[in-house]
Amino acid sequence: MKKLAIAAFAATFALAGCSTMGLDDERTMVVEGQAVNVKVVNIPSFEVEIAPRKALCERMDTSGNKIETQCLQYRQSYQKNYNTLNGNIQGFTYEPNYRYMLDVRQEAIADTKTGVVKPVWILNDVISKTAE
After folding, report:
1. Whether pTM exceeds 0.85
2. DSSP assignment of the chain, as one string?
3. Residue 20, exposed/middle/buried by CB under 10 A (0-12, 13-18, 19+)?
4. Which of 21, 25, 26, 23 is nearest to 36 (CA)?
5. End-to-end CA, the chain
6. pLDDT tens by residue, 34-55
7. Using 50, 70 and 90 to split pLDDT, how confident is the model at 33?
8. Other CB atoms within 10 A of residue 86 CB
């Protein structure tokens, strides 16, 4: 019984070490004009407003080249200006000329190729959809 307890304890540490080994869960973001490192974490629920029009933004394609495309614009209720979302919201279908209030969650997903943890937004609920 004692050997089993020691083996379970050792396995816990070994598996915990493997789950985060080589993963980079920090990202550099611009906050109030300053570049800062932030940790990507899971957030179960938060509200965002989606603008009725998309904005031009740059994304990286699968080859690592920058391409110009259109991105969703979002802001939280206390923010004055919109930010561009470099990705999509899983489960959400955007229609132009509508302003949305969404309840979304953020999950930290590890890219298996690069080992970088990326935030992924997933739709919990459409709170409102208003024509502009």
Report:
1. no
2. -HHHHHHHHHHHHHHHHHHHTT-B-EEEEEETTEEEEEE---EEEEEEEEPSS-EEEEEE-TTS-EEEEEEEEEE-TT-SS-EEESS-EET----TTEEEEEEEEEEEEE-TTT-BEEEEEEEEEEEEEEE-
3. exposed
4. 26
5. 68
6. 665 666 788 999 999 999 999 9
7. low
8. 14
- The strand pair at 89-90 and 117-131 is best described as parallel
Whether the predicted pLDDT of 84 surpasses 80? yes
Residue type, 103: D
Look up tokens 């919109």; give the residue. Answer: 82
Lookup result for tokens 């930290």 = 108
